[in-house]
Amino acid sequence: MSKECDYCRFRDPMPFVCKFCGGSFCYNHRLPESHNCPGLTKLKERARESRKYYPPDKPQMVKINRPSSLRPVSRALSVIKTSYSLTILAIVLVSFFLDIIIGFKYRLYFALFPSDFFYQPLKLAMNLVTHMFLHSGSFHLLFNMLFLYFFGPELERRIGGKKFLKVFFISGLIGGIAYVLWSLFIYFIFAYPPSPAVGASGALFGVFACLAILAPEIRVHLFFIPVPMKLTQALVFFTLLDIIFIVAGDPIALSAHLGGALAGLLMGSWIKKKGLHIAGY
Q1: CA dist., res. 177 & res. 171, Å (int)
Q2: Structural domain of residue 218, as residue ranges?
Q3: pLDDT: is 258 or 32 the higher one?
Q4: Residues 135, 243: one domain?
């Protein structure tokens, strides 16, 4: 539930509660030092007042708490729990390693096969979701997860976690359906056998398109273009690139990219029209 920051009055969909003063703060003022926490000041004063001094002839044993080796893991898990984007990223990484360990059978069961439209429609319906958590290789995984890491939390902070999940999964579903229909069209017209699809690209294009509608002022640097581009310009660039590759007969599931982007544009426009987002900051 979104709340106003007690320090700057910014309405954050995922507010942080200070354990010293009990106030609600945005991401930028979540630390006690960032909002001049009165609770932390009082705690320090009480600690100074209650400090005991011992005579030099009676040394006291001081217990040193050694940092646990599992503390970095627990901190990473706590960060993941606070963000749906990072939770999805963690699930994708686990799925990638399971794919390596189990092998062909894992992908056979969870990848999106267009031919299942005729033979196993229930499996096809399930794979419209599961295919988002599989990837064809380390480079494919790296590119998509970097995309999710940078743009997912940015959208999530603006529309909230639940709406972010809707944008992600609806875009992925629409992208998967677009790929199945395009593959069947190509098969019946040109007799080109359909290939299984894996990857979260359709869902991520939806996230990117939705963010481009809600925060067009954000600028990004592409690897091969030295000049920063607005999100809307980058979205148009990637869309035109996908259309060119589709016309050229590239086998990558680019139709899923376009389907996911269209879904993200529609949802972003609806969210903006209803005023259900937080303006850029």
Answers
A1: 10
A2: 72-274
A3: 258
A4: yes
